[in-house]
Every structure is written in C-alpha cells, then in structure tokens.
Amino acid sequence: MVLEFHQHVIAELLEEPAGGLVILSSGLSLPKLISSLLLLHSPSQGTLLLLSSSPSLKSQITHHLTPHAPLLPSEITAELTANQRHSLYSSGQIFFVTPRILIVDLLTHKIPTSNLAGLIILNTHTLSENSTETFICRIVKSFNRKAYIRAFSDKPTAMVSGFAKTERIMKSLFVRKLHLWPRFQVNVSEELERNPPVVVDIRVPMTKYMAGIQKAILEVMDACLKEMRKTNKVDVEDLTVENGLFKSFDEILRRQLDPIWHMLGKKTKQLVSDLKTLRKLLDYLVRYDAVSYLKYLNTLRVSESFRSVWIFAESSYKIFDYAKKRVYRFTRAGGVKLNEQSKSITGKKRKLKRVDNNGDEDGGSSSTSTDGGVVLEEILEEAPKWKVLREVLEEIEEERQRQASSRKEFLLEGEENDHSIVLVACKDECSCMQLEDCIRNGSQKVMREEWEKYLLSKVELRGVQTSSKKKKPKEPKGYGILDGAVPVTPAQNSEASSVSKQEHDALLAAASEIRNRGKVDDVAGDNPETYDGSKGHGKARGKGRNKKRAASVQHSGNKDNKNYNKAETKDEPEIAPSGNEGPADDIHSGAVGCSSEGMPESAFVENGVLWKHNQKMDATQLKDSKPLPHVHFYALESDQPILDVLKPSAIVVYHPDVRFVREIEVYKAENPSMKLKVYFLFYEESTEVQKFEASIRRENGAFESLIRQKSLMMIPIDQDGHCLGFNSSSEAQATSSQNAVTRKAGGRKEAEKEMQVIVDMREFMSSLPNVLHQRGMRIIPVILEVGDYILSPLICVERKSIQDLFTSFTSGRLYHQVETMVRYYRIPVLLIEFSQDKSFSFQSASDIGDDVTPNNIISKLSLLVLHFPRLRIIWSRSLHATAEIFSSLKANQDEPDEAKAIRVGVPSEEGIVENDVRAENYNTSAVEFLRRLPGVTDSNYRSIMDGCNSLAELALLPVERLAELMGGQKAAQTLRDFLDAKYPTLL
Questions:
Q1: Which keywords accompany this UniProt record (predicted)?
Q2: Burial of residue 528 (number of CB atoms within 10 Å: 0-12, 13-18, 19+)
Q3: How far apart are CA 230 and CA 669, in angstroms?
Q4: Residue environment code for 653-671, b if the CB has 16+ CB neighbours within 10 A, otherwise e
C-alpha cells in the first residue's frame, strides 16, 4: 500500500522529465518510495541504473519489490565480463551498480548510452562536487540529454552542512528541481495523524548515582568546551553541550580545525578526542548496566589517564566514584564504612563520600569478608528501565487476556495472530541480548553474572602481572620493549591508585573465591573452558558484538552460575515461549528472538550449598511474576523492515530514536484498522530526552534552512547537459582570443589537440579523474602494472594521499613502486596530494628534528630521494591544483601510448619484459647487481654491458680490458680487487 504523500512525491518527479532532488525527513520510508517509483519503469523506456545504495537500503528495496519478481533489480559486478555487462546494459531492466564500475564502462564505451533511461542516485547527502557520481552524470548528459537523473536523501541535516551544499550538488548532478518533504509538510502530517497509534510515554526516574554521573559528565564536557573556546580558532556558536551530544559535533570541530591542525597544541588536539569520549560515556550510561559501565571506565582509566585532559577536570572523579558505588562498596567488619577510615583517598574524595553516606544504605545484596577485616558489600544496582519493561510486558499480556475473554466471539482468526507479537526496539544487539536474558532469567541473575565476570577479569589481569613478574629476573638485559613485550606497570600503578590497597585485595579475594568454586565444579565433571567467556568482555559491551559471539557469551560464557540456570529451567513454563517462530529469522539478523535454544546441558549441574540463598531468591522472584507475551527484540542499528514483516500490535521503544518513531507512524498509516499501542521509555531529566528532542529541532531547522535556500537558489537555465561544468580549456581559448596578436595570421589560433591521460582502474576510487576530465582531458582507464597516471611516454606518476603515504612507507610497498617506475620511465614522479580542507603540512615545524629517525615521515622521504636521485616529488594542495600541475607537465610532451603503457612491467612468456625502454633484452636482476658493484657508475655501466655478455664473463676480464670499458684505471682496479678478494672462513 502506497501512502498518499508518496504518490504526491512520485507525481512531482514524473512531471519533470529531467529529474530532481528529493529530500525527506528520516524515517518516512524512503525504500518504499523508491520501490514504488521502480514499479512504474518499463523495459521500453530503457535501462535504469541505481547508484550509491548502502547494503541496508538495497536489501529493503529488494524486500519491497520481492512480490513483483519480474521487476526485481539485479546487480552488475566486476566478475561479469565486458560482453555480459554490455548485454545487461542493453536489456532495459533495473540494475544496482557501483559508481566505480559504471564510470569505467562509460569511459571505455561499453554502455549504449542512447539506451539509458536514467539514473537514480541514493544517499545524495554523501556526495560532493568532485564525487564519481557527478562524473557519471556529466558523461551521461553529454551523450544522452534525454536521460533523467533522480536523487534522493533522507538526511536533511547532512544536506545543509557547508556553504550552499545542496545548490552545489544540484549543479553537479544537472538537476534543476528541489522537492522538500519534511514531517511538518501538510500532506505528510495530515496522513500520519489521521489514525495515530495509542502512545504511552513512561518517564523512568534515574537513580541517584546515575543522575550524579550524568551531571558530572556534563560539567566536565562544559569545562572542555570552555577550554576549546580559549583557542580562538573555533566558531563559538557551535560549541554547545547540546551539539556535543551528536556524532556530527566531531565533524563540525574537525572541519574547522583541520586547516590549522598542524598549528594546534597537544592540549587542543586532545580536547577534540576527549569530547568524543565524554559523549560515549553519556550514551553508555543510559544504555548499559552498572557493571559494564564500570568496566568501561576502568579501561578508560588505564588507556587515557596519562594523556587525557578531561580526567583532570574538577568533576571527573565523581564519574568514577559514583560508577563504583553503583556496583559495590567497602565496610570494615565492625560496620564502619571504609571510605571514612581510608587515608589513601584525597581530601576532595573523602569530603564527597561523607556527603553521600546517608544514601549508601540502599540495597546491598551480599558480602564477602577478607582477612584484613574489610567487607565487600555488593550493591549491583539494576537499570531502572529493566523493572519498568517487565511491568509493561505484564500489562500488555493482562490487557490482551482481558480483551480475549470479553470479546472472544467477535475475534477473527487472523486478528488473534496479529495481536500475539510484541516488539522491543533497542539501540544495538548487545542490549537486545541482555534484555532477553533479563526477561527470561531475572535481572538479579544477569547482574550477578556480569559482576562475576568483572571479578574474574581482575583475577586474570592479576595472574598476567604476577607471571610477568616471575619471568622478569630470568631474562637477560636488553629484553623487554625491544623484544616486543609491553610492560604492565602503567596498568598496575593506575589500578593501585584507583582504590586503596585494602579495597583492591578485597576484590581479588572475592574473585578468587568465585574462581575456586568454579574449579570445584570443574572437578565434578564440568567443561574445563568455564571462564573463557568472561575474558576481555568489558569493551565489547561498549561497542556491540557479533551476534553469534554474543549468543555464545550469553549461554556458554556464564557457566560459572550453573545452578542459576538450573533454578530457572524449573520456572520457565511461567514465562511465555519465544515469538521466534515465523519469518523473523529469515528476513533479518537484527531482531533477536527470546528463545531458550543453545542452553548447554552442562549448565544444569548441581552446585554446592553456598549459593542456595541466591538461587531461591531468583526462583521465587520469577514464580511470583506474571505471564509475559511473545517478545521480539530488534536492534535499531540493523536497519531492516521489521515492522512490515512481524506486524506487531504493541511496540516498546526502549531506546528512543526519531527515525524509528517515524517508521512506526508510517506503519500505522499503512494499517489504519490495526490497534497499535506504543510505549516510550525515557529516563526523566536525562540527556536521552534532551538528545531526542534536539534531533527533532535540528531536523526542522535543517528543513527551514533548505526552504530559504530553495527560494534564493540560482540554477543555470541550461542545466540539461549543455553546461558541463568548469572547463579550463574553453576559458583559456576565450581569454587568448581577446589578447591575440593580429600580426600573426590575423590572430588566428592553432587548433589544440585533446590531452590524454592514461589512468589506472584502481584510481577511480578517488576524485582526481573527475577533475581532470572537467578540465578537458580525455581519460583512458586501463590496468597498469607500473604507476597510477601516465602523462607522456616519459612521465609516470604514482599518486599518494597522506594516509596512503604513511601506510605505504610502513609496508615497504612505496619503495618497490618507485623502483619499478625508475626502471621503466625516464621521469618518475611521486605525487603527494593533500586534502583541500586540511592542513598543507605533515607535522608542525617544532616536531621536525635535525636527526634522521626511522619513525619520522620527513626522514623516510629524504632517504627515498637519496636512494632514487631521478625521482621527482610533487606536492599538491588539492585536486584542482593537481589538475593544473598535470596540464603544465603535459604542455610540451607527446601523448602516451595506451598499448605500451599496458605492457610496461608485464613479463612475456620468455621472461623478457616487453617494451622496457631501458632494460630491453637484458636480465634486469643482473643489471641491478652490476650497478651495485664497486667502481660501476651510471656513466659506465652501459659500456660494460656492451663489452661482455654476462656477469661470469665480466669476472674473467683482465684489468686492462676493464679500464677500457669503465673509462679509468682506478675504477677498474677497484672492481678487480673486489672480484679477486678472498672469502673469509672460520678455519
């Protein structure tokens, strides 16, 4: 079913034969709109090509077109031969194709452009004026002006970044019409609000410590932004805490600082990284449990404590202190809190802990005492949303049973099936797995498993440190960092400084106790790989995991709590079985069903009496709980059409997202008769709410800016292919005709021949071929063995971006590339190309030392030039500067030969390199060996090669003959002494 506003969009596009640019609000079902547009295509119109589609967008379009099998688009890949691709381009069907394949086929004339109906360009917000897509549009329009170009984007905020980005992209794509469809557009808002779903907005209060952590992070972020403002190098208007909540904030900062990056101090550069870290901390606070959050903070303390600025801010210690209080606290055996007695904590921390002591009495679950009289009291604070989510699911099930009993005779057969699915939407798959575990096994068990993994990771870290201590005296001097071993002292010192010695010992004692219990279970016949699932688990929660790995960690990695699993299996009939049946598993990998598959039988082995109190507590908790409905978990990051497939009747938005909210509205508008209830779970007064509201404001502001731009936009009237962008050759002719000297043939100018550049296929990942073509050069794409650009029979260019230059030096690939260029071409050129919006410098002048060091990029370049004296290095500030350099280099040169360029560096069947200018019919390895002999120079090695046929013959020549060939007695004697020198032996 196509929505009405989708029909309006399609009607507007069809009215304009040349195409247009459509910008929608995110979540307004762009894949359905494109699918509906593709259904109107007929083979008689010609071939339709779809460019720049992401994998998720491609799969969604294919999913919507699956019922219409004849129109299902296929993909053109590089594995197909040229003839196969030509036949597909001529078929009149719809194809997905990458810009790199399409531009090469256009330049090599493998596409019948007259048979091309048009192009559909997706994700237009990722393009720029020099993108390959604009190159494609220019060539298509030059050959076929009737072909339409339709571009789409659902990221309005990205379309307003930079100066007049939308207008510049429209000119580059040869599009004159701009279609804006925001959420507040009349047709859209009326249709989506005609039958709205029932919405329940639940504001969950954060715990005291969560609110304290959030406040402290915002204070630290504000302090970092104030430090950033002091640099006077950034636009102050953009430096707000609200902007700092979004990923685009990093792009805003880097865009402003990149041109002067080499002039910034270390502190300013570190502040940019710190703001990114603080945004992650805010996001992870409301997304993950207390133990995982503490584990992530511990990794930050170890990895960033020596260079970060934010850790030394005034409020940063509160973040670590409150995060620890959410998980555990220490008291002495007499009940006195260790925090008041400890002298190893600074005065500032001690003062804070006295203030918060009144609230510390909530919810300690169990304790473990050590020999030093210190008691480790476990708090294990659960996420408040967990309890609310369970209550919401119980309420949904109660309401469903009540409706079924009261109106059972009126229910249709299909309606009951529709009402059997509840969808819970989370940010990532890690959260899906954890919530599934919470609902099935209870939140207390999940927290205890995470806590035990945390303690066991400390034991493993301790074991690594002690084993390295024992091995250290046995190693001789000179080993250590040079041998590749990394010392663990920084981590050890940071761990010792993070808590007092007694606290650290108490944690290790508790972890050792848990590990010993695990060993007892292993003796009873358990799997020996009990604790493998707990290794290195802290950061994986922070960044999401592979689905298969997550499943294995959840089931097999928790074997240290086997008695819990046994207790839960007795109560599993109380919980409704999974809704994992049906088509959910077939269509996407992002939805995680609540299934009990994969639970190993070894997880049900009996345990000792020590854990029975916890076992009973979890069991009774689940026995008293009410039945739950069929639940499906969906990760928003997977970006799949889950609503159309599952058709849920109740949706719980666990992590609010604007895009998914709009998808729910579209889903309800497509199914007006369905009763849909949506529950939103927000943390009250949290950055989660602030970020959700700010994202709506940002999108509305972006559309308002686009509406103003549309009213002032200046698009050329001949935007149908006559105006092919900037062409320097035509402008040069115009200016020269005005300044022509009439004495020379009446000012007549000779016809200039078209410049040709042979380009390697791999170079079409960059935008330089596009800029060269824009300047009027003919681009010939071939596969080159030597070089990237052939400008003339003598000039070969190897192009390196800054990032590629560093990696090529590290791998040694650049040395080999320059060596082959020097061998086959008279003028080898290394082009180092900087980005236009970044600094035109490798490093600041203060970082360049006087000595040659192997880690310095300037030192590496100097050594490369010393080794290859004929190598020329060209520094280019931007793509357009490179095009100007190329045109000046080609001014007095012959055009390159395509056939010769392809054969250079490719050995023939006899082993002789074909078309080798300098080493033709010679053994190149023997020539290189000859040139490295003492006395042999660039001026005499050719005469030596003419005088003897092999190195064996050279070794037998007398000194007099060598003097004739080498042009001097001294050089001949040097070579003779080297050849006759005795080989030293040990005898």
A1: Endonuclease, Hydrolase, Nuclease
A2: exposed
A3: 51
A4: bbbbbbbbbbbbbbbbbbb
Which residues on adjacent β-strands are paired with residue 678?
Answer: 199, 651
**pLDDT score for 110:** 85
CA distance 525 to 4: 65
Span 818-838, pLDDT tens digits: 988 888 888 999 999 887 767
What are the CA-CA distances from residue 184 to residues 32, 158, 660, 700 (Å)? Answer: 20, 19, 17, 8
Cα 767 from Cα 790, distance rounded (Å):
17
Report whether 784 contacts 820 (CB < 8 A): no
Give the integer Cα–Cα distance in Å for 779 and 759: 7
Q: How far from chain centre, in Å, is Cα 857?
A: 26
Question: Which pair of structure tokens corresponds to residue 145?
Answer: 């002006």
Q: How high is the pLDDT of residue 483?
A: 35
Residue 966, classified by CB atoms within 10 Å of its CB into exposed (0-12), middle (13-18) or buried (19+), is buried
In one-letter notation, the amino acid at residue 314 is: E
At residue 685, the pLDDT reads: 86
Within 8 A by CB and 6+ apart from 32, the residues are 2, 3, 6, 64, 666
Length of the chain: 987
String of DSSP letters for 626-657: PP---EEEEEGGG---HHHHH--SEEEESS--
Q: Residue 119 pLDDT > 90, yes or no?
A: yes
Structure tokens at 676: 């849909």
Give the CA count within 13 Å in the CB-facing half-sphere of 27: 20
Q: Is residue 531 pLDDT above 60, yes or no?
A: no
d(C-alpha 311, C-alpha 281), whole Å = 13
Rounded distance, CA 323 to CA 294, Å?
Answer: 6
Q: How far is CA 176 from CA 114, 135, 151, 316, 818, in A?
A: 22, 17, 11, 52, 46
887 within 8 A of 797, measured Cβ to Cβ: no
Helices vs. strands in the chain: H and E counts, helices first: 42, 22
Residue 246: φ, ψ to 5°: -110, 155
pLDDT of residue 781: 92
Q: How would residue 474 be classed by pLDDT, with cut points 50, 70 and 90?
A: very low
Buried b (16+ CB within 10 A) or exposed e, 491-522: bbeebeebbbebbebbbbbbbbebbebbeebe
- Predicted TM-score (pTM) of the model is 0.72
Nearest-angstrom CA–CA distance, 252 and 202: 34
380 and 290 in contact (C-beta within 8 Å)? yes
Please report, rounded to a whole number, the percentage of residues in the chain having pLDDT higher than 70. 69
Cβ atoms of 447 and 288 closer than 8 Å = no
Cβ(460)–Cβ(535) under 8 Å? yes
Neighbours of 5 (CB within 10 A): 23
Cβ proximity of 584 and 594 under 8 Å: no
| Average pLDDT for 597-601 | 35
Question: Cβ–Cβ contacts within 10 Å for residue 645, how many?
Answer: 16
Six token digits for residue 227 = 């430090």
Distance CA 549, CA 536 (A): 13
What number of other Cβ atoms are within 10 A of residue 818's Cβ? 21
CA angle 420, 423, 427 (to 5 degrees): 170
Give the pair of three-digit tokens for residue 34.
Answer: 């494109």
CA distance 796 to 786: 8
Q: Count CB atoms within 10 A of the CB of residue 268.
A: 19
